Amino acid sequence: MKPMDSEVLREQGHIMVDFIADYYKNLEDSPQDFPVLSQVQPGYLRDMLPDSAPDHPEPLKELLDDVSKKIIPGLTHWQSPSYFAYYASSTSVAGFLGEMLSAGLSVVGFTWLTSPAATELEVIVLDWLAKLLQLPDNFLSTGNGGGVIQGTGCEAVLVVVLAARDRIMKKVGKTSLSQLVVYASDQTHSSFRKACLIGGIHEENIRLLKTDSSTNYGMPPKSVEEAISSDLAEGFIPFFICATVGTTSSAAVDPLVPLGKIAKNYGIWMHVDAAYAGNACICPEFRKYIDGVENADSININAHKWLFANQTCSPLWVKVGTLINALKTNPEYLEYKVSKRNEVVNYKDWQISLSRRFRSLKLWMVLRLYGAENLRNFIRDHVNLARHFEDYVAQDAHFEVVTTRYFSLVCFRLVPVDGDEDKCNERNRELLATVNSTGQIFISHTVLSGKFILRFAVGAPLTEEKHVTEAWRIIQKHASKFIHKKKY
């Protein structure tokens, strides 16, 4: 059998599509067979599979039987309608078809020459998405800016840290990396710290500024200004601010307008990490949360989180020259001639790796097969479902909503009795473990101001009101054993 045979692909491709379609149907129709959080123990799979690869081909049917019996039990079902943990990794028929097409064509578009359509479609589609987000013209390819699809938000923040570092080093001349300082809040995603360390920024020069409930855990501009002034007085060189729209813990929103003015005044690069909530900003009613982006140097969203583009797809917009200057390489074997060289984009110079998938295909298909208004309505539906859950919490005196809900994440907990926060944290931790052990729903947690908080994030494409209502019933049922104790 040849590795690629069109007739084998036709036959087995149909079988695979049927298998995946059945999986989604069963997630809805037979939820009892698919615990949302996998219930297996570590190492379960090793005893179920051979200790070496087969010497000869095995039938697809036998392989899929193993998937059903051995692999699926070890999955946490991110696409389950009862998945409410972390943030969703949204999928869709359009995204899936785009992945199929990308895998089938299997092109590598690291330069314009290696697949002109892959490069040009990415430029166009990211301009489309930038316009839906109402980004300033300098983030468009027609306005001397441009977009690139990174794999994840972690990759996006890494490349802009490197670009900002390159810019400041050229500006100040010869200097030590030990003088460079960056700023973010204590709610900023952990990938920011990792990006800084990879970029050579010293751990002690990463300023994670304290947030609290008074600002709904948004980064306080006054603290940023004070930290920059203090660092300048001590001979440090501030060069990067990472602002977040929709933090991981609580979906907090950093105030971009004042932060952008600070960044502009001091000549500091400001990046906007809008991985989760930036997707919602295609809706006019949520666009206000990225007001001030005009003073940013870069912004990214994860279209695989809430724009139904499937893993992985993280659009990043940036002022082109700064990124290319930091990441460009020119090996002889990649040199080529075109008639309009100055108009050609080579995406190898916008990212860490050389190889890259044709990710823009699935984003293009999502935008075309659903249309902007349907995408807005999908997001609005999730926000309304989160509001529905929030109402349940607010109506139960044994629970409280902990932070302002901006999007589709509700942060809540069992309330303390007699001010005993330690006991309250213990009870909420036990409630989380108990609820998740049922396999009926999956929620996650965070810690805010020393309080153990439960997170209920709506975003799975199959989720409907009935799933939210059932989730609340399950939470209340298992909370009752804590509520009815004398001390609780």
TrEMBL record:
Needed co-factor(s): pyridoxal 5'-phosphate
GO terms for biological process, alphabetical: amino acid metabolic process; carboxylic acid metabolic process
Keyword tRNA-binding attached: no
Molecular function as annotated in GO: carboxy-lyase activity; pyridoxal phosphate binding
Keywords: Decarboxylase, Lyase, Pyridoxal phosphate
Gene3D superfamilies with a match to the protein in the record: Aspartate Aminotransferase, domain 1, dopa decarboxylase, N-terminal domain, Type I PLP-dependent aspartate aminotransferase-like (Major domain)
One CC-aspect GO term: cytoplasm
InterPro entries: Aromatic_deC, PyrdxlP-dep_de-COase, PyrdxlP-dep_Trfase, PyrdxlP-dep_Trfase_major, PyrdxlP-dep_Trfase_small
N6-(pyridoxal phosphate)lysine: residues bearing it: 305
One Pfam family linked to the record: Pyridoxal_deC
Similarity comment: Belongs to the group II decarboxylase family.
Protein's name in the database: Tyrosine decarboxylase
